[in-house]
Structure formats: structure tokens, C-alpha cells
Amino acid sequence: MPGKTKVLKKPSRTISDQSYVVEVMKGLGVTLKHFFQGTAQMVSGNVPDAVKNPLAEGIATISYPEQKRPYAERWRGVHRLTHRDDGSPRCVACLCCSTACPAQCIYIKPGEYPEGDARRGYERYPVEFVIDELRCIFCGFCVEACPCDAIRMDTGVHVTAFEVKSDFVYDKDKLMSIVSQHGTQNSENTRHEPGDAGHPGIDRLHGGH
Amino acid sequence: MPTFKLDDREIPFEKGETIIQAAYRQGIEIPHYCWHPGLSIAANCRMCLVEIEPGPGQRAMMLDVLKWDAARNDYVVDRKPKLQPACQQMASEGMVVRSENSHFVKDARAHVQEFLLLNHPVDCPICDQAGECKLQDYYMSEQRTPKRMLDEPVHKPKGVVFGDTIVYDAERCIACTRCIRVCDELAGDHMLDLRERGNKNEIVTAPGRKLEGDYTLMTEHVCPVGALTSSHFRFKARVWTLTPVKSICPGCATGCNMFVDVDTREQRAYRNRPRDNEAVNKFWMCDDGMMSYQRETERRVLKASVRKDASREETTVEAAIERAAAGLKGVQKGWLAVLLCAQSSTEDNFVMVEFARQLGAPLYLTAKAPWKGDDILRNVDQNPNRAGAVAVANNAKVGSLKDLLHAVSAGQVQAVVGLGACADAEADTLAVLSRVSEVVLIAAHEGPLAAKASVLLPAASSFESNGSFMNVKGIAQEFRKALPPKGDAVPAWDLVAQLGRAMELDLKYRKFKEVRAALAVLTPAANPERAPVVEPTTPAITPTTPSTVTNP
After folding, report:
1. What is the value of ipTM here, to two decimals?
2. What are the boundaries of each domain within chain B?
């Protein structure tokens, strides 16, 4: 609200605050309380033994990598290329992602659909689509730049560690085989294909004009 | 010179010039689509409308219009001046023209722009013109409003193949007819025309014809939107990743000025574009010239090689130069011939002439055989630098390749040092060169002479080095290095200088600047810095990205 200001009172500092010793003791007290409580619970059998049975339920410590925190929906994992209904990539090879990429890790070779394809003339497609996941800095600019919702980072997966550098270079087939956190290969956003009602691009003979 | 007033500036003009033309020569761009400085006036896009104040004692031409009054929530009767197309209106002394200063003009532009975009597919992400598209530029500078039409746009043919070189998209077309006028006025062949009217309007090829000839790519070049795309560049790259480098077409003796658009990440040339030069090529280039970026990278000599018996053996440049110097040292004075090349730059030939002068060797010139020229741009002489190669000889006699072959058959030549591998003599007559004990060739491209070389040194092509060509009119023009040399290639002048030093000659050139400075002193006529390019400021065609690749 403009014009209204709330003045906060600065907390006063006592001698015990100033000396630190008392506050440090208080903090240690909390640690010791949890230490004894935890040990007592373990001895009494209320909670499983964290050493013998680290993955059991009720243990506060997360045993990474066997256990993981759930990632947020918008957490940026490894890329995937979304599919259309017919299984082809949504990507139209516009090169917006590779333009936006600050790490220059995306290489796309655009191509034209063959003669007779309904999409010829309207769209292009990626003949090659390569992401060097080692170079990638996971900034998500490619996803932001994509006008077709064709590249997504909603997989919730880290790049797997490989032994050979070339394994980090993901090609089109690999990128298209990766699924989202929810297991889908498509995207929520609908897409009109040439020939659909509402697709911008029915030719003059079929368009009724 | 008479002047008129455009906004706050006095614009000088010559009699008969239009407002847009006079402004264009002053570097002021009045937004336009259909007008092109090299073409006739069509005045069909209505983008260049300006307000012209009535002359003294004249009544302003006013139109009654309905204007939306938001306060009254109704239309009210209003008046506005009749605007005139700046591309068609002749400038006259003392005329007062308002362009940026008139809100009527700004309104008109915004509405014309909205009108042109009504049925546009707005497929910028996959359009090759995106980044250098006038629709995009003027949307940002003149319109900036969302589309208001809710109806399905009119659909028209897409991906229409006009010929071997051009693919047409009618939905993107704004029917400015620039391409039609290029065919009519530059190529002189009415291959394209308009069909239908209004929003069904589209460009078609003449019945039974396809777009062909030597100037088809110019239709794509003048297209202000993405309607015409060239099949060689279609879908290959995005223009914003390309860097234009000033160059000269190596295709013929006309020496058309051009930009080579290179991708500096991939270190690859993607296309040529004409660079305006009133004195040489005006605004145009032929198809062969436009495609020279592909030819320059084909059939390259990438490694030094030495002939061993019947086969060739690849080696390092240093070893090959040593081998050549050793072979040439045994040759007696007067038995060595030096071959200049009309395909190589003036600087390369200049150092070669210096090399010949110090050895007292006679000069010969090799070139490519003539091709079919025309009276538009294409010169009969396929060689970009015949005049330059002759000029650097400084009145010394320069024989042809045939003269050299005669001298060889007469037994007057023991060794040949030459630039380039092209030959303007019949292939079978070259056989006599096998009588020569040592043939040292410095070539960028494979050619008929390369097979005869005992030592072949890889030179940088004209895209890979700085240099200059002198065209058939005697205008020396500079080209800039666009790409790093491929393979082991080194600029030819450097190889000649290295060879000279290996033979203990006084050839001190180690930097391009030194060659150019010596050239300016010894052959001032061939110094390109003396002949400034007549380059009108062209808002319509100048590149949008600044040139960053300059390697002086």
C-alpha cells in the first residue's frame, strides 16, 4: 500500500547476545537434545537403526542417491524433444534455441519435408538435433526460446555420468526417447497440423476462399 | 542545387528526383516496400506516404474521415490531409514534406503495416528472411499493435517452385512486384507476373515458363519479405548468425562488389549478396557470381605436394618450398619463366613480378578461357584480375600461356614458377610442359596446370586472404579475408616471398600491409585504396549486423 509504512523496532541486544558464549551454548543444547532423543528412540526401538537400515521410513537423513527429494515441476533436468501425435518431433528446426543458447551446445541441421508431405512448404524439420550435455549450463533459455514447445527440461533427471565424452552428446533419437517426469512424450499444449481446421495453412483450393 | 524540407532537414535534390530518392541519397529512410533505388516506381505498397504542405496560395487537399472518439463512444466527422507516396512524388524547390513529424503519416504507416500483416502467416521462426525482413523492422518501428482480425486468414500456395533457384511462398508475399520488375528491367525477360486481385493476389511464373536465366537470384535479393527464398540458402542458416564481409566477386572481369556472409562459429560461407556500387554493379549480381561462395571452396589445393616419378607425394609447405628452391637454383639465368595469373589478386601478382624481376625472368599470364558474357553485368572475360596482373608488370612484356608453351617447345625454358592452375590453352597443348625440368605452381584451386607441377604449393583463395582485383574498367577494388585459410593454405604472395627468400632473393614481405605499401609506390594505379568505392548509403539493402571480421 503506498503511503503506509510499518516501522519495525530494532531488537535490543543484551550482554549475553553480545558475548556469544551463551548463544553458542544454547545452540549446542539443541544439538545435544536431538542427539539424546534420537539415541533414546533408537534404543527403545521406536525408530529403525539408521546405520543398519538407512532406507527405512522414519529416518530424517536422505540417503542420496538411493533416495532423492522430489524435484519441483519447473526444475531443469536433461532435455527432451516432445512428440506430435504421429510420433514425429514437434521441432520445426527454427534454430531459435541454438541462437539463444549461451553455451552454444545445440546443433541443428534443418531440412525440408519431402515432396507430397502435408507439412512441406509450411514447416521444416530437424534432420539432425544434437545437444552436447557437457557444454550445457542448464539455463533453460532453449526452452524459453522455443516457439513450438518442442524442447523441454521437465524430465527431472540429471545427465547420467558417462565414461566417454562422446556419450554426453545426445542426438535426436536419444533426445526423443527421454520422457517427462510424468512419463509422457508429448506436451500439454495442443498443436494443429497442416490440414486440421484452424491450422494456419490450408491451401486456396481447400480453404473455401 | 535546389532543396526541399523533409521534417527538420533541408534535402538537396536533382531535377526529376522523387522525395524518397533524394532522402535515400542523404541516408534518410522513408519506410517503403515496393520502391527500390534500382527499379522503376510502382507505388503500390503505400508505405512511403508523406504529408506535403500546400504551396503558397494553394488550398490543402483535405479528406473527410470518421474518427473514433473514445469519450463519446462514437465516430465523429474529422478531416485529414491527403497523403502522397514519397516514391512517386517529384521533389520541387521549397517543398515542405512531413514524414516523422506528422501524426497523420505515422497513423497511415501503422495502418498500412497492419493491413499487410492481416493475412500474413507470421511464421518468422521458420522463415529465412527473419532478421532482415522489412515486415519485422517496420512492425517494430511503425506498428507495435496486436492483430485485431479474428477471422481465418486467406490461404495461398506455399513452397511453390519457380525454377531451379527460387521457391515462392504466396502467404508471405505482399505483392510489391519488385521481383517482377527485376525480371523485366534487369534480366529483360517477363518471367513473373501477378494473378488475382486484392488479398488473393499472388506472383506466378508466365504460362509455360519457369524462372530461369542468369539473374534469378536477384528476385530473391530484392524481396523485402520472405516470399521468395533461394533454394541454395533455404533453411540453411539464420541471418543473425552471419557476418557480412566486404568482398569482390571472383567470377568475371566486371568485379561486382559483394558481401560474403559467413558464419564465424562454423567458419563457413553461406551466401553472397551484392554490395551496392554505382560505378560497377549498381545493386546487382548474376547467379554465377552469387554462387561463387560455393565454387571458391570446391576443388581446393589443401596440401603441398611434390612429384615423385609418376605420382604425387604430400609434404609440408616448408619442405616443398625447400625442394622447389633447390630445383630452381640449378636453372641458369634466363632459362626461368614466370607465370602470372589473372585469377589471383593484384598483390599476389605484384610479388610474383618482383620475384621475376630479380631473376630477370620473362613474364607470362595464364587465365581461364572466355565464357559467354552478356551486356548486363557478365563480362566475356572470366578472370577477375587480368587488368591488375598486367598493371603490376609495369610495362614489362607479358606473354600469354600460349607464348610460354611456344617458348617451351622451342627449348627456351628450363623451369617455370607460376601462380594459379587455370589455363586458357587447349589441354593437349599443355603436354609440352613435361619437357620443363621444374614447374613450381602456387595455386588455390585444382586446374589443368596442377597435374604438370613438380612442386604444388597450396595458396589461400580470394575468400581466405586480403587483396584486390582490378576490373575491366581499370577500377582497383579491395576484398577482405572472410574465412581462415583451409588446410595448409597460405596467401600466395607469402609463398612467393618465402620461395624467393629460400632462393636468397631480396623479398622481404612478411605482412600484407608491406605488400600493399610497396604496391602503392610501384604501381599506384593498381592500389585499391586510391579508388574509393562509390557506395551510396542504402537503407534498403545494407546489412543489419555490423561487420566484425576485418583482418587488415
Report:
1. 0.81
2. 3-116, 160-295, 304-530
